[in-house]
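$ ./design --mode recover --in tokens.txt
reading tokens...
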């Protein structure tokens, strides 16, 4: 999608502080971190949100969560972490491209915000 912020980041048109990248996904540090360790994981292919997913994307989602687990293990998140995806305006989604926030290295309250 030509006007999507995260598509532009995935294409390298906008710089990011990368944590991980392969052919299908990109993980990068959040520019407004809400925890001492806060990164985003996005698919390089554009999906508006989790509401746009079908069972066809199961392998992609499995890959995303495997990479999240590996990155958290490699970065000392042994006490735990939270993975969040927001859907739509009322769900708090500010960028209309599927993305997962990963927050760690502080206690996270429930219910969230």
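writing sequence...
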């Amino acid at each position: 999608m030509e006007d999507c912020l995260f598509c532009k980041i995935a294409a390298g048109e906008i710089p990011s502080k990368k944590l991980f990248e392969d052919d299908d996904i990109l993980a990068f540090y959040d520019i407004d971190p809400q925890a001492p360790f806060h990164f985003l994981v996005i698919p390089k292919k554009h999906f508006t949100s989790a509401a746009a997913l079908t069972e066809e994307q199961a392998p992609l989602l499995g890959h995303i969560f495997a990479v999240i687990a590996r990155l958290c293990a490699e970065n000392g998140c042994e006490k735990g972490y939270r993975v969040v995806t927001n859907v739509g305006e009322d769900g708090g989604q500010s960028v209309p491209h599927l993305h997962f926030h990963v927050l760690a290295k502080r206690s996270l309250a429930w219910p969230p915000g």
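exit 0
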